[in-house]
Write a structure and sequence with these properties.
mainly beta, seven-stranded mixed β-sheet, four-stranded antiparallel β-sheet, 57% strand
């Protein structure tokens, strides 16, 4: 079992920055890939960024060049640095952890609101 807790969301003006954190606990040694998803009101959940255990990363085109995903294995924490935020980035952001043969674990989500 893996438990995930997100933090760092809030209200920011367009053009501003936020850093989200995702603290993992439990069977963290079994985690392979970690991800950030987001879901805006009335929209489908969207995969924002992924980071593999080896450090390779991928980003949605909508955030490429603005967001950076990282992972601090010593602190069992994943981050999402979000710069040049836009109103369309407003959403609930969720972190996930993929564990082989167990599936995907989800955090509770953190709200990010970008005002224009």
């Amino acid at each position: 079992q893996v438990q995930l807790v997100e933090s760092g969301g809030g209200l920011v003006q367009a053009g501003g920055s936020l850093r989200l954190s995702c603290a993992a606990s439990g069977s963290i040694g079994s985690i392979n890939v970690m991800e950030w998803y987001r879901q805006a009101p009335g929209k489908q959940r969207e995969l924002v960024a992924t980071i593999a255990s080896g450090g390779s990363t991928n980003y949605a085109d909508s955030v490429k060049g603005r967001f950076t995903i990282s992972r601090d294995n010593a602190r069992n924490t994943m981050y999402l640095q979000m710069n040049s935020l836009k109103p369309e980035d407003t959403a609930v952001y969720y972190c996930t952890a993929l564990v082989p043969f167990q599936g995907r674990y989800w955090g509770q989500g953190t709200q990010v609101t970008v005002s224009s």
